[in-house]
Amino acid sequence: MLKNYLTSAFRNFLRHKSFTLLNVISLSLGMAASLLIWQYVKYERSFDTFHSKAKDIYRIQYNGWQNGKLRFECAAAVPAVGPALKNNFPEVKQFTRLYPVSGVVSYETPNHDLISFLEQKMQITDPAVFEVFDFKLVNGNQQTALQGPDKAVISQRAAKKYFGEADPIGKTISWNGRRKFEVTGIFKDIPQNSHIKFDILFSYQTLNNQTKNASETAWGWYDFNTYVLLQPGTDVKLLQAKWDDYLLKTRGEEWQKYSRREEFILQPLLGIHLHANLLQESQPEERGDGDSVYALTIIALFILVIAWVNYINLATAKSFDRANEVGVRKVMGAEKGQLIKQFLAESFLVNFLAALLAVVIVRLAWPAFSSLSGRSIPIEYFLQKDFWILIASLLAAGALLSGSYPALVLSSFKPVTVLKGKVMRTSQGNILRKSLVVFQFVASVMLISGSIIVYQQLNFMKNQNLGVNINETIVLKGPGVTDSLYAQKIENFRAGILRIPGIKNMTASTNVPGDEIFWANGIKRLVGGPETAISGYTVGIDHDYVSSFNLKIVAGRSFDVQHQNERKKVILNRAMAEVLDFKDPKMAVGEKVIQSDTLEIVGVLENYHQMSLKETVAPLVFRYAPDFSNFYAIKIESKDYQRILASLEEPWKTYFPGNPMDYFFLDKFFNRQYESDRQFGQVFSIFTGLAIFIACLGLFGLASFMTIQRTKEIGIRKALGSTSANIILLLSKGFIQLVLVANLIAWPLAWWIMNSWLRSFPYRIDIHPVLFIVAGMGVVIIAFLSVGFQTFKAARVNPANTLKYE
């Protein structure tokens, strides 16, 4: 019986090659697009799942409140939190802290060659890091590797970089030329789908010794990413409530004294990558976006459903051509159930062929899609069992969903009526077909509108006036290895490079625009203002910083080498002046504030965007610190970047030997904050286009079939004097009306969804109604072209050819 079903199906496919090909292409594109998107979604959801105890690991989120207002939400907590949880709550099995550091790491070979690299991904951590996380040592003892001071554990990648094929265990590396560490272990390279990455771990006891145990007991130093491992089955909400009560009892008196409150929230490890958007994230440039993942999942479903709708529409429209076949089969004894099986078998075969083609498309498109999405999606996903289970599921679902209704329609024909040629088209069938077409184009209009709004918002953020000049700026990362003559060397370096043609000026600072500021402490007016200290972020700058970045001074002056005792002076931005209750920036100049010392305000800067427009302008404090510099921003006048970079190498080596020269272009560095949004926009737009293309394939096929069915009507109309334009308008009118109805449904839906998305941006565009009209007209034109091609061909046919046998 199955053989008969398959034989009949193949015969039907061969009789209607174009119909079959259209269905296979439409379904294969829909499946391929959905498979690609779902692999991306799978990858985004896979972050940190490689830890065997991931469901029981929580990060401590630190929220700071002052005078009843939430001042910040931070991914880094204070060092005392971990021990407090472990020692007071049996639900907490273990904890670990990671304190991020960077600098120049060096290894002196037996031949006295010095191998040095500027390392950005290093952490100081507790020995328990290997108990909490599954960072596996391939060499060394994980219980003892980080016990005691001056111990280091390195990744396989770092071992290869510094030691080649030699065994690193027992060898010594130095950090910034000042402290030496014994290598006691090697761990596997951190997987890409980890929210925290590092190549070198230093023992925590080293930091404890340096800070006289402040890194163990401090409640005000929040630079420590703290993780706790809970006992399996712990009620996290109950533990959080008990923890909050404990904090109120032990810390409440101090909070009340300074009108502040602190929250230390248990945040699930598995939610960090997609749903955490906090200060001091471990890998902010690789942070995921749960909303984007959700949006792409919806797009994948839209594309798949649009492809299935195409099959249903074409199959039901064509069902009347097969009415005689059904009638003969029923007269010959075929039962309704057998006919349903026959048509489901045809649906299965079409979906099977589409699935095979989809697998080929996915394999070919995988590298390009990975590049487009900005994620290194492992090709191994293609070989995993769940990938093939997903394909099988799509095949089964597609065969049933797209084949069931046409099978029921075809099998329901009465043989007597059919064989007399009296098959009538039911209004229910027409309504369903029209409804499905409307659904397809509702989805298309919504996707086009969404793509335009995403592009406009991204363009708005990238082109908005930042209040700071980041163009034509090369930034050198400051030297990690310095000595007592560093202050003089930096001035000599500055004087040396200013003689290079094309270099305008140089400024040294602890941060540059686009670099998250970690230097935070309280600031309070000496007289007046808020009663308690305000938490503020501080940038250390030199006398050229304000002029180099074209920052606007609204009151007072900038730092000046001609003035004495500038280290006792401070500059605020307007936001900080307002937080300190200065009604006018001019009122702040000459006033004094307390920030670890008593400082005089000498100037107020206009607000500028230190970070992207996804963040609000933060209150900032600027301190004079020319010899405490992480970055050298060099303003250039020449476009000959390679010559200038080559010219910088000699003075760099002269004044900062032992330091690799590392640089970046500031505009690209700043705009990297929009990279994930840009990639999302690209993916969104491409799959929007694919969804519209698939919808138009269905419309094209449907129009072709309808046109063929009305061939004689067209011939009669032309014989009676109708023009080709009239014929085209007649045949297109029904489809265009459906697309217009789709527009009316899609516009309010698209506005509501995209307006909700835009609310997450503090600086955003306004959605203009014209945008929806443009998107809607675009879909109308595309639909008209899809239908018009077929109707134009039909309208051009000589009526004598269509009516000669009548």
How would you describe this structure to a colleague?
- The protein is an alpha+beta fold.
- The chain is built from 26 helices and 22 strands.
- The chain has a six-stranded mixed barrel.
- A hairpin with an 8-residue loop joins β14 and β15.
Can you tell me the residue ranges where pLDDT is under 50 for at least 5 consecutive residues? Answer: none
Shape: globular
Order of strands in the sheet with most strands: 3-4-9-6-8-7
Q: What is the helix fraction of residues, given as a range?
A: 40-55%
Keyphrases for this structure?
806 residues; alpha+beta; 6-stranded mixed beta barrel; 26 helices
Summarize the SSE layout with pairings.
Blueprint: H1 2-15, H2 17-45, E1 57-66, E2 69-74, H3 81-88, E3 92-108, E4 114-125, H4 129-132, E5 137-139, E6 151-155, H5 156-163, E7 172-175, E8 179-187, E9 200-203, H6 204-211, H7 214-217, E10 225-230, H8 236-257, E11 260-268, H9 272-275, H10 290-318, H11 323-331, H12 336-373, H13 385-411, H14 415-419, H15 427-463, E12 473-477, H16 486-497, E13 503-509, E14 520-525, E15 534-541, H17 545-548, E16 553-556, E17 569-573, H18 574-579, H19 585-588, E18 592-594, E19 598-605, E20 620-624, E21 631-636, H20 641-655, E22 663-665, H21 666-671, H22 675-709, H23 711-719, H24 724-758, H25 769-796, H26 799-803
Parallel strand pairs: 4-9, 6-8, 15-20, 17-19
Antiparallel strand pairs: 1-2, 1-10, 1-11, 3-4, 3-7, 3-10, 5-8, 6-9, 7-8, 12-21, 12-22, 13-21, 14-15, 14-18, 16-19, 17-20, 18-19
Helix pairs in contact: 1-12, 2-10, 2-12, 2-22, 10-13, 10-15, 10-22, 12-13, 15-22, 15-24, 15-25, 16-20, 22-25, 24-25
